[in-house]
């Protein structure tokens, strides 16, 4: 997605839109999580593009350099830290490279790979988002003068949450090898964490633990699938 037409007549950051003129590329497989970053970016004045795999992100980076790169760690085709390292080594380097994850412990791995900082999930606080990016921007790209600190919390569309659940359910129904089962477990756990859905997060973590211990996953998979189906079957609140 590219929202450039919204900002074609505005070039310089302002106190209310301190990221005006910047382009954010978010590499995120969850529509719900990427929708949160989209809302944060637009409210800050930045343009936003999304890639949902490492391969798609690499195609983006062959064509242009964003001002800010935000990379989720758990992606369907690999470890996001590998992409962070690749981006860190590019010349000219992207001004701000951030890792993101629902696992707060992932911050060290992101920085070791070359990230400037870490955006923990759920990423929904506008002030935190703006400050993290501005603190790593080169001095000559930061807005001059006082900046309005906005305590807005964004709320992604729940339809995106349902889309992510439908995607994970389809993967389970298709039959999974061990690698894909691990991916679904971490995907749903991260999604549930971002959405504040504790029972779903607990079920995702239970599947991950069963996999790590080499135990039978049949019960954990059934529990997770049942919770996802219940949420998909529930009417959307209007």
From TrEMBL:
The record, for Gene3D superfamilies, names: 3.40.50.2300
Q: Which residues carry this modification: 4-aspartylphosphate?
A: 72
Identify the residues that the record assigns to the Response regulatory domain, covering every copy.
23-136
Keyword flag Phosphoprotein? yes
Q: Which CDD domains match?
A: REC
A Pfam family of this chain = Response_reg
Q: Which PROSITE patterns match?
A: RESPONSE_REGULATORY
Keywords assigned by UniProt? Phosphoprotein
Q: Which InterPro entries match?
A: Bact_response_regulator (IPR050595), CheY-like_superfamily (IPR011006), Sig_transdc_resp-reg_receiver (IPR001789)
One Gene Ontology biological process = phosphorelay signal transduction system
- Isomerase recorded as keyword: no
Query: PANTHER family recorded for this chain?
Result: RESPONSE REGULATORY DOMAIN-CONTAINING PROTEIN, STRESS RESPONSE REGULATOR PROTEIN 1
> This protein is called what?
Response regulator receiver protein
